[in-house]
Amino acid sequence: MVTVTVTAKFHQPTRSRRREWQDAMHVYRDTKQGLVDGWASGELGMSVTTASIDNDLYSAVQNQAIREAKAEYKRDGWMDYTAAQPFATNNQNWKLETTDNGSVVVGFPCISQWWYTPIHVHDEIREPVERVLEGEAKKSRLQVYRRGDEWFCSFTVEYDTVPEGETPIGVDIGERHILAAHALGADGSMLVSGKEARYVRRKYRSLRDSLQEAGALRARNRVGNKEHRRIRDLNHTLSRRLVDFADQFENPVVRIETLEGIRDRTEWSGVHSWHFHQLQTFITYKAEQAGIRVETVDPAYTSQDCSSCGERGSRNGDHFRCDSCGYERHADLNAAANIGKREGEPCTA
């Protein structure tokens, strides 16, 4: 994980913007001072909300002032904020976007409105800025402040590093879609329906039940053997398709979820008879034969977290949506992308 602090200068903000931003810095300072004074005198409780703040700052900015003042008060006690304070907002309440002409703009709430203003993207901050724009990194709170006659913003960016030339491919194994794969940085994905696997299970379960009732135990065992062969053939086909998909990318590494505890992680009753381990084994040895490394990763929350911003989202059937950043995608492909981003342990057949 790489953490980079980005400091960028705003490109020629208008006079009205500069005037409002200057006012916001003073109001932000007065807000923090009022909170600290109230806590020191006992007039305010530590659970204070924006309802106790009477000024024109957007509520998101007020909330950030509360968080900062509370942290500083707990750490340093009473403080006298003499200088204007950089005003700030949390990571969910500001935006980094590009315009039609390619300019990078920062949008954030202030007093009268949201302001969208271009920034200078110099070489030292180009990579983290591009990673945020492409949804490959998490951004922190945004601070806006003045230095001399110039205005700046700063924020922190976190992202995973990928060895040069390597293409991580996350693979999610499930019921409705037996395989979902996403190649990070290559905009490639693969989605395979689980209908055939479910049909095989239903068909042979029905046959076994009928033969069990008829007392034909030997025939029932033969049906079980046929089912295992069908499943084995299907797993061979699925694993070959996945390896062929991965092999088209530069220096691919396949990442699959560890199977430990899978019966406890899923509500699908068929997981007990479905050969997940066999499928993983086939994927692993076929990948090794093709010279592709396979890793296993911890699958915790991969189906719940947003692969774009990392916040917790919601799943409705096959649809995933993140309320924090608005990202939407097929739920299994979102999970596959999360799996691909995680550091894994070597897996051998």
List keywords for this structure.
endonuclease activity, 25% strand, single chain, 17 strands, 5-stranded antiparallel beta sheet, 349 residues, DNA-binding, alpha+beta, 2 domains, nuclease
Q: What's the quaternary structure here?
A: single chain
Percent of residues in beta strands: 15-25%
Helix and strand run: EHHEEEEHEEEEEEHHEHHEEEEHE
In total, how many beta strands? 17
Percent helix: 25-40%
Radius of gyration, CA atoms, in whole angstroms: 27 Å
Q: Kindly state the mean pLDDT as a whole number?
A: 86
Structural class: alpha+beta
What does the largest sheet look like? 6 strands, mixed
Poorly predicted segments: 267-273
Total number of helices:
8
- Give the overall silhouette: elongated
Strand order of the largest sheet: 11-10-9-12-13-17
The span between the termini is 29 Å
Protein name: RNA-guided endonuclease InsQ/TnpB family protein
Keywords: DNA-binding, Endonuclease, Hydrolase, Nuclease
Organism: Halalkalicoccus tibetensis
Domain Cas12f1-like TNB: 276-339
Question: Could you explain how this protein is built, in words?
Answer:
The chain is α+β, with helices and mostly antiparallel strands and 349 residues long. The protein folds into two domains: 2-159, no CATH class; 167-346. It has eight helices and 17 strands. The protein has helices at 15-41, 59-76, 123-133, 195-214, 217-246, 262-265, 276-289, 331-341, and strands at 2-9, 87-89, 95-98, 104-109, 114-118, 138-139, 142-147, 150-159, 167-173, 177-183, 188-193, 252-257, 293-297, 314-316, 319-321, 328-330, 345-346. The strands form four sheets. It has a six-stranded mixed sheet with strand order 11-10-9-12-13-17. Strands 1, 2, 6, 7 and 8 form a five-stranded antiparallel sheet that branches. α1 packs across α2, α4 runs antiparallel to α5 (217-246) and α5 runs parallel beside α7. The radius of gyration is 27 Å and the shape is elongated.
